[in-house]
Every structure is written in C-alpha cells, then in structure tokens.
Amino acid sequence: MSAALxxxxxxxxxxxxxxxxxxxxxxxxxxxxVSWIDGKPEFRVMDPGAFARCIxxxxxxxxxETLGANMAFVLGPMCAVNKVNSEPPSHLDCAxxxxxxxPFLSRPHAKRRELDLPGTAGYQHxxxxxxxxxxxxxxxxxxxSYEVVKVDNGILFDVGPPLHxxxxxxxxxxxxxxxxxSIDSGxxxxxxxxKMDKDPAAARAALKQMYLAxxxxxxxxxxx
Length: 224
Known about the structure:
With 224 residues, the chain is of the alpha+beta class. 31% of the residues lie in helices and 21% in strands. The chain has a domain at 68-221. The chain has helices at residues 48-56, 77-82, 92-101, 103-106, 176-194, 200-221; strands at residues 34-37, 40-46, 71-75, 84-85, 137-143, 146-151, 154-159, 162-169, 172-173. Strands 3-5-8-9 form a four-stranded antiparallel β-sheet, with helices on both faces. Helix 5 runs antiparallel to helix 6.
C-alpha cells in the first residue's frame, strides 16, 4: 500500500492482509472483490472471477487470502434477520475494518449510486431480492459455517449460527437503540416479500420468529 489513506480513515488500524491492496484516488483501499473498469476500481461492481474463487477456494471477500475456521459476514440488519447474504465471508479483522472504514457502511446517510455504471453490459444486482438502502447499522457475524444456495438469479449464502456478533454504526460500536431502529425501519421490506410466498400467512409467522430471534441477539450483543 503506497498511496496515502483518506484522512477520514487514516487513524483506523488496517489489517496486515489488507495492506497489499491498491488504494483508489480518494484514499480508500480497494477490496479484492471490486471490478476494475478502464483502469479504475468500480466499487459497485464485483469481479465475477473473485466471487467464484471466494466460493471455490474459501478466499476472503475483502483481502483475497485464504480463510481460517472462523469466518465473518458483514450483514445489514435485514440479512441478520433472515440469515441470508449475497456476499461471501471474510476474515474477522478484514470485516471489522470494512464496518469501520467503508464509506457506505460507516455513513448512515450515504446513498448508493446506481446510475452511470461504466462498461457494465453484464452488470446485475446481487442475487436474491437486493435491499439497496443504506442499512444505518451493520453486523459483523462470526460463524464457522455457511451454505451456498443457488437461486434463479445467482448465488446466496445461508450464514451459520453466530459465535460472536459485533454491531457497528457510523464506524463505531453501535448502541442497541440504533440497531433496533435500523431493523424496524427495514422490516417492511421483508414483510412485502411474504406476499409473494405460496403461503403468505406462514411466511409472516416465520418472519416474526426470525425478528424476535434477532432482537434477542441484539439485546445480548449491544450496549444501551
């Protein structure tokens, strides 16, 4: 890593594994999964080769090095509810760094740019039904297991039971109220998906149980 880091993240300790990553013109490390288009990193587009290698070789989504027994998923609150993610896991230290340093994750009011994607004829949203809002709070979900699930428009990951969960908001440890507010504000999105189920009532009942389970988890893993 030869370029200087952006002043906004310069004080955040970067993991050794991520120090080899290139730095963009703004001073942000470019994760392993990012596509390069016309010589510049396009953070909104994943490299399909990197995605495939992360699955096949158990490589870290953020640094590209081999994962160990424990893996960490960076989940928005809705993904923490249904335990489904569209991105492969990372090393814990890489995931914690992303939760603190990624501009989109650490700035609750940041908006995801969806217009003017350059040179992306094959571009598509993440598999499943992507939630494009800024989550406000994020979970770093540490687990020993996950399952790869093929869906109509790609691949999803069913995350395993958590060993630990770390909640972040604005690049710092999140408070319980912040996490609950983020979950509650996004829950209607999942409730809408229940309407498409073969048995909407059963889907709503299952969602309620998942909601109660994640709230119980938040109560155990956050501070007031």
